[in-house]
Structures are given as C-alpha cells and as structure tokens.
C-alpha cells in the first residue's frame, strides 16, 4: 500500500488509562488494523519472541511473519540494537522540548528520520498485509508521538486517552501477571508518587502536542465507559472512517450492562487484556475509590491538581 493510502492512529497517554480497551474496540471497525504497543514490539516480539495477541509466539505468527517480510525482507534483517540506540537518542520524555520545535537541530533530525523510518516501514507493511487503510499503534508514550509527528509524510492522528490520576496511580501499584512471557513475569509497578509524576509528564506533553499541527483528540476513560458506542463513533469520525454507524453491532447493552464482542487480534505487546476474546463486559473499574490508602490519594491529588482540574475530575462529574 502506498504511503498516502493509509493513516496511523496513535493512542497516547499514561498506561492503565484504558487504551487497550480502546484499541480493541477500534480493531473491530472495518478497515482498521491494530498492532499493539509498537514501541515494545522490537524487543518483546522480534527479540524475546513473546506471544502475539492471537496466542502464537511472535516469530510463529503468520501475520507478523508476512509483516516482517514486507517491511524489512524478514525480521532477521532488522537491526533491533540500532532501533534501541536511536530510541535512546531521540525517544525520551526529556527530549520533548527539543522535539516540539518546528525544526529540531540537524543531528537530532537525522536520528529522528532514521528512527521513525523503521516505524513508517512497519506501519506501511501492516497496512499492506492487512489490507486496512488505518493502522492503530497503542504505544502510549508522548515522546514517540512527538517523534512521529516530525515525519511530515505520515498521516498521523493522536487519541489522547486520559483517566483520573488517582485511579491510574492505584492501578500501577497492583501486581499484574504478563501471560505472554515465559515463567513468572509481572508488569512494572510504580509507587503512587512516581505514577503521579509520570501522569503529569505524559498528559502535559500531549496537551502540548495538541497545540501543534498534529491532529489530537481527547478521550476520557470516564466518558467512554458509560457510553461506549458514542465514544467509538466519535473516534471513527476523528479517524476519517467511512460510515461508522454500520459497523458498531459488536457493541451492545446499556449503562453497566454494556458489552463488546471482540475477535482475537495480532497485537504484538501491551496490557494482558489484549488476549481476551469473545463477549466482554464493559463497566467502570473504580476499585481505587475503596482500596486506595487516604495518604496516597491525597498525595496524588495534590501532585496532579492542575491537570485533574483541567480534565474536570474535581467537579464530581466522573
Ligand atoms: Zn498473531
């Protein structure tokens, strides 16, 4: 598929904000191919051979084999170490002020071009192999969104996913198994304070991105969960997908009885929810309101106050 014939929807925001659910819902729309968190695909898929969302190990998954052939003439030709080096030199939260400039310095621009070139080849291969005109990358990191936004030839649109910082911080303290990895492996945990700082950094950076020429739309997890269909319809419009009304039969029920019927998807890395298929219930996860210690709740509220207020979380309208 030619470069101008597909677009990339990038899900940005702090982890544990519901981006995996959003990605899976988008993946049910006609003409949409979801890839998982591409930022982790190189290490966890290509190198560590962790399981794809379809349940097969990455290198045995036929879909990803075809993508690797189309993008790089086979995964064995890909220099993953080089991608890691480039990532360290351009794709970091602390580089965002440099990446936000209209024309970054020459050295940075060269590395950026090489780094995002790998992503572009991968996206193009995903579009070609799947036959879909829209590719979804749920990498989430604001820094990667900034890197990709510097690549003018890419039709990039960013969905900024936000969730209440207290809910997010509480979620990051919980131990969650990673079923895709061999043996006992768990998702990273953060202290509430670390999660609060990250929440500020990721959301603040995406606010900044919205002031550039890259199209950015904001979606609050708390607005998605009570009314899934309107939220998905609005995302489909943002993505420029034709006639989304006809393709939403996979979402049903009302209020707390809402459900979605999900197919297995070839997602390369991400939250364990990517392995769930069949009919899933969609209801709000507000365990933090009972389980989060008061001291942690107060500290996270204080640290994230300006943006919490900006997103309307202090008005009791969650
Ligand atoms: Zn697969």
Question: Quick summary of this structure?
Answer:
By secondary structure, the chain is an alpha/beta fold.
What does this structure look like?
This protein has 318 residues and is α/β, with parallel strands linked by helices. The chain has a single domain, classed as Rossmann fold, CATH 3.40.50. The chain has 14 helices and 8 strands. It has helices spanning 19-27, 38-47, 62-72, 80-90, 96-99, 106-130, 142-149, 165-173, 192-209, 221-224, 228-238, 288-291, 294-303, 305-310, and strands at residues 7-13, 32-34, 134-140, 156-162, 216-220, 251-252, 259-262, 278-281. It has a 5-stranded parallel β-sheet, sandwiched between helices. Strands 6-7-8 form a 3-stranded antiparallel β-sheet, with helices on one face. Helix 4 packs across helix 6, helix 8 (165-173) crosses helix 9 and helix 8 (165-173) packs across helix 13. The mean pLDDT is 93. Residues 52, 54, 56, 61, 63-64, 266 line the site of zinc ion (ZN).
Helix and strand topology:
Blueprint lengths: L6 E7 L5 H9 L4 E3 L3 H10 L14 H11 L7 H11 L5 H4 L6 H25 L3 E7 L1 H8 L6 E7 L2 H9 L18 H18 L6 E5 H4 L3 H11 L12 E2 L6 E4 L15 E4 L6 H4 L2 H10 L1 H6 L8
Parallel strand pairs: 1-3, 1-4, 2-3, 4-5
Antiparallel strand pairs: 6-7, 7-8
The structure holds zinc ion.
